[in-house]
Amino acid sequence: MDLVRLLRRHARPYRGAMLAVVLLQAITIAATLYLPSLNAKIIDEGVSQGDVPFIWRTGGVMLAVAFVQVIAACAAVWFGSRASMGTGRDIREEVFGRVSRFSAEDMSHFGSATLITRGTNDVQQVQQVFLMFLNFMVAVPIMMVGGVVMAVREDPGMSWLVAVSVLVLAVVVAALIGLLLPLFRSMQSKIDRINGVLREQIAGVRVVRAFTREEFESERFDAANADLTRLSLRIGNLFVMMFPVIMLILNLATAAVLWFGGHRVDAGEVQVGSLTAFLQYLLQILAAVMMGAFMAMMLPRALVCATRITEVLKHEPSLTEPLVDAPSDPDALKNSTVTFEDVTFTYPGAEEPVLDGVSFQANPGETTAIIGSTGSGKSTLLGLIPRLYAPTGGRVLLGGRDVASLRRGQLVDAVAMVPQKPYLFSGTVASNLRVASPDATDEQLWRALEIAQATFVDDLEMPISQGGTNVSGGQRQRLCIARAIVERRGVLLFDDSFSALDMTTDARLRTALAEHVAEATVIVVAQRVSSIQNADQILVLDAGRIVARGTHDELLQSSPTYQEIVRSQQTVEAK
């Protein structure tokens, strides 16, 4: 069972706290079971005999036992909470660590919405059930066994009432669990759906407003919300039905004890105090079963959540770290040649490769530009260098070493990349620039901002909202470029990172960048020919293949595809 395996592995560090819970719960239950016996003595030996001193003495003992019960119960809850909260924290940490190792392929396999739900809501459900288990389920068997023993000790003749009441209650609980399990499994999927819809609407709010799709998106959310609400109501109806049924069983058991017990008292077979104690023990037994029932009602959802969490933890990232570190090169800037050897890449489930037989070499101190139509594989090619993807054929070499043999840390030290979609984290300009270089000085940050033409920054503590939504697209691109060049890397990758810049800013940035990274290998994906015409080497991609290569002037003479791109952009600029 996934839930048991998950808790057994992550709760191991809290064995001391769990042992304390068991001992304290045993003390609590022992005190709880002892109180009805003392109460029976007060009735049979004190009240019936008129022995007031005995009543005071026994009452004092009851107060002391009740005090111990309260202290032990509070301590048990405290230790149980520490164990369950710590276990939940450790599970979340492992889920986050596993997801952070996922490649883009792994992320698309699950989807962002379900990964968020599995790392938060699902873990919370498992954590809550573990807390309930420590607080209730440890006490339930002790209470039931002890209650049965004490009840039979008080009046063996009515022990059959205990068996009948517990059996009826167990049948009711089992039936409800059978109905709830498939509903809870469906509920987690519906939470995934509403999470995904809400995430899309928040992330794409500008698109929604631009196309006046507010009403349509509201209907989408309402449909997902109503679907979840209907299922929650079905589950709620079962929960609501459970408590009246349990109370009915408790009240019928009480009436049966009073009816049959009254006859036994009248016949002199049992004393009034013993009958009262038997009734209290029966109610304690049924209360224990009711606690177990409440736990059992939560268990189906936790089982589903544990399975979903285990699926994430068992999923092996498609990009694995090498077992042995590749030998480090102390002079990475001078050994940063990027080589593609007959590289092929196919997305999972795709019929045709997005890259097919790509071979080229990008040398230090040179700028290699990649241009081509939309969907020709430019961004995918760039993503193979820092191992965002793994080639399905061929090899990608960095400094003569296969990037598959390098650990992620070594790649980060050698390669800096500005993605096609610039992303900034909530914080400040300084915190964003120090993402890849935590030890960078303020002088290095200002120098990077100067190179990136980020003249709009007048304070490193300038606030940045999540995603950089409080700055323009061009400002986001310049900040991301500055982040990549805070510290020099052997390889700089720019994935259409200048598209939001005007021609003048673009020219100034490239001039400053060329001076700063003169020894680095620079690979640029671009759409505008004017941005790459001074590149040392231009690769023209078409349908995943390199159909031409050379300088700007050479391609103008030899490549029909490049000529067509140039003509199309000149026509647009002329208009």
Provide structural commentary.
There is one protein chain. By secondary structure, this protein is of the alpha/beta class. It is 63% helix and 10% strand. The chain contains 18 helices and twelve strands. The strands form three sheets. Strands 6-9-10-3-11-12 form a six-stranded mixed sheet. A four-stranded antiparallel sheet has the order 2-1-4-5, with no helix packed on it. The radius of gyration is 35 Å and the shape is elongated. The chain starts with a helix and ends with a helix.
Comma- or semicolon-separated keywords:
575 residues, 4-stranded antiparallel beta sheet, alpha/beta
Task: Summarize the model shown.
By secondary structure, the chain is α/β, with parallel strands linked by helices. It is 63% helix and 10% strand. Residues 326-333 have low confidence and may be disordered.
As laid out across the biggest beta sheet, the strand order is: 6-9-10-3-11-12
Distance between the termini: 67 Å
Largest sheet: 6 strands, mixed
Low-confidence stretches: 326-333
Order of helices and strands: HHHHHHHHHHEEEHEEHEEHHEHEHEEEHH
Number of DSSP helices?
Answer: 18
Helix content: 55-70%
Mean pLDDT: 82
Tally the beta strands: 12
Query: What structural class results from the helix and strand content?
Result: alpha/beta
Shape: elongated
Radius of gyration, rounded? Answer: 35 Å
Roughly what fraction of the amino acids lie in strands?
Answer: 5-15%
